Amino acid sequence: MRTVSPADSPTRERILDAADRLLARYGFRKTTMDDLASEAGIGKGTTYLHFSSKGEVALGTIDRMVARLIERLEAIAAESAPAPERLRRMLLLRVMHRFDHAQPHSQSLDEVLTTLRPALLARRERYFRDEAARIAQVIRDGVREGRLRAADPAGAAHTLITATNALLPYSLSVEELGRRRDVESRAERLIDLLFAGLCAPASTRSQARSFAKPHLAQRRILK
Amino acid sequence: MRTVSPADSPTRERILDAADRLLARYGFRKTTMDDLASEAGIGKGTTYLHFSSKGEVALGTIDRMVARLIERLEAIAAESAPAPERLRRMLLLRVMHRFDHAQPHSQSLDEVLTTLRPALLARRERYFRDEAARIAQVIRDGVREGRLRAADPAGAAHTLITATNALLPYSLSVEELGRRRDVESRAERLIDLLFAGLCAPASTRSQARSFAKPHLAQRRILK
DNA sequence: AACTGACCAGAATACCAATCCAGTCATTCG
DNA sequence: CGAATGACTGGATTGGTATTCTGGTCAGTT
Fold first, then answer.
1. How many CB pairs under 8 A join A and B?
2. The pLDDT value given to residue B211
3. pLDDT interval class at B4 (50, 70, 90)
4. Neighboring chain A residues of B167 at a CB cutoff of 8 Å
5. Across-strand partners of A148?
6. Which residues on chain A are in Cβ contact (under 8 Å) with B163?
7. Considering only alpha carbons, which residue of chain A is nearest residue B207?
8. How much is the mean pLDDT over chain A?
């Protein structure tokens, strides 16, 4: 194998397209490299000019899914909306983008996970770092705008990644996560909480303590 | 089978103790019901007076682990410390209690998960509801004290459960979670963020916007 | 030089026999 | 008499073997 493909060569894309279709339809084990090559309309050997193994092809489809997510995150980051709004949408997107991709691949994902767990785990670290970098950038924007506070934007970004990871279809399969709208609403509640926090602001706290204006104590409430 | 055991009969406890030892040492599949009975010092049939199946015994050990967690959570909830401090410790405990239990059972947990996934999933819902109830109570305390804000304490409790679930050894095995102190520090950072939130308080925001006292804008900062 | 598909070794499957073990229940024990 | 037991059974698991399948290679073709 040489794998000297130009990273986004048309042939490489065709292989990944074919893999997406076959993995969704037959799963990882039942998909053979012969099937894959003929579905992509190329010879089997050619596949090995672009990927070093069958596992790398499967992981390649996930790499591409995340690469597309990163593109969408960067697009949101580049918008002119206030940083908190961009950040909110980016966090929601990282959950739903994966959910929507996992939906048709539910069967193959389980297989890939049991077969390529260590390799996928290592990549997840990379994925998370890449996402965290984009999120940290927007947090910095928000701090500059005075709309967000974070002493360590990079660390905060990583923590936000951790917090939203519970809603990702990694080992919790798609069926276990539940219906799309439920995942979405859980993600929204979580993100709301991450933004607002639980602690009552100092001013509110003293008001509530004195029982002066108890109804004001819940003005900036948490849904 | 009748399973008419008084919920915490000495025999039932002995069976669970034996199961804990054998599952940790040999895993789920290699542990036979004969082994279990002789380790517990009873006849095999007796086991079936307390548990309806082998799977129920394994799930029973997890039930007990969570029951002990609930006890510890209630103990913290009953303390006289301020609600935010109690809540913080409860959230950290729900992560670390599970980690410490999963550590010696890493092998058997994987097996139980692949064999009894649906049953365990259903129980997880119950576990989370039980934990959420205790957490919601403390949130209510905090709201009453004016130290926390939450329009819907029960919903907030469930969201806090979701947020910290990413650090639980459910499908992410113990090795994948990393070293104990790393898990602990990640949990602490996450909990800090959940309490403080990302949004700058209104007063701080306006200060930062006007660039009047930029150093004050980060007074209540996020580690 | 880019691509192909026939080829090979090792992995997966199919099959059967032998073994094991979860769960039952007639019997024993206290 | 009810609680406890362990011999018993059938369905599942294992082991051994023959056969097929398929991931990966590379000599040859375009």
1. 160
2. 32
3. low
4. 162
5. B199
6. 163, 166, 190, 193-194
7. A146
8. 88
d(CA B191, CA A221): 19
Nearest CA in chain A to B206: A146
Closest to B76 measured CA to CA, from B26, B8, B137: B137
B4 versus A194: the higher-pLDDT residue is A194
Residue B60 above 60 pLDDT?
Answer: yes
Q: In whole angstroms, what is the distance from residue A75 CA to residue A80 CA?
A: 10
B57/B35 Cα distance (integer angstroms): 13
Distance, angstroms, CA A12 to C1' D7?
Answer: 64
If residue B187 lies in a helix (H) or strand (E), which one and from where to where? helix B180-196
Check if the beta carbon of residue B113 is closer than 8 Å to that of residue B135: no
Strand C lies under 7 A from the Cβ of residue B33:
yes
Could you tell me how far CA A75 lies from the centroid of its own chain? 15
What does the angle CA A45 – CA A46 – CA A49 come to, to the nearest 5 degrees? Answer: 100
User: Averaged over A146-165, what is the pLDDT?
Assistant: 95
**Taking residues A74-94, what's their average pLDDT?**
97
Helix (H, G, I), strand (E, B), or coil: what is residue B147?
coil
pLDDT computed for residue A213 by the predictor: 33
How far apart are the C-alpha atoms of A31 and A57, rounded to whole Å? Answer: 11
Q: Contact at 8 Å (CB) between A134 and A90?
A: yes
B151 three-class SS: coil
DSSP code at position B103: G
Instruction: Say how many CA atoms lie within 13 Å of B171 toward its Cβ.
Output: 25
Distances A17 to A51, A78, A100, A193 between C-alpha atoms, Å: 14, 28, 16, 38
- A208 and B170 within 8 Å at the Cβ level: the answer is no
Say what the pLDDT of residue B220 is: 33
Q: Is A68 helix (H, G, I), strand (E, B) or coil?
A: helix
User: Is the pLDDT at B207 greater than 70, yes or no?
Assistant: no
Tokens of B76: 């913290």
What is d(CA A222, CA B152) in angstroms, rounded to the nearest whole number? 7
